[in-house]
Amino acid sequence: MPTRLYRFHCTDGYDLVADLRGRRIPTVALVRLHAERVALDLMSRAAGTDWSAWYVEVYDERGHAVLAKAFAEVRCERRAGAIRGGRPWR
To answer: How many whole angstroms separate alpha carbon 28 and alpha carbon 45?
Structure first.
């Protein structure tokens, strides 16, 4: 299965955590999953930070926007999954 290079940048419109290496991923579904992992990883590294304005913005190798996901949505979806008896994260 061919893979494409994606970069997962995190920003609140002022500050930026840039993904300089990117990651090769074969499907859009896995791109979405990795975007959530990127957001959760950053939130766990700086607990206590207000993440309400932050997004993961995903770009393909040509620099075209593929996906934008709010950190707040990721946090809510993960909690909802845990409440419904979903698999633990990680």
So the answer is: 26
Q: Running DSSP on this structure, what letter comes out for residue 21?
A: S
For the stretch 76-86, pLDDT in tens is 555 444 434 44
For residue 13, which of 61, 63, 65, 70 has the smallest C-alpha distance? 70
Give the residues across from 10 on adjacent strands. 17, 56
pTM (predicted TM-score): 0.81
Cα torsion 71, 77, 80, 82: sign: negative
Distance CA 79, CA 58 (A): 23
56-73 pLDDT, tens digit each: 999 999 999 999 999 999
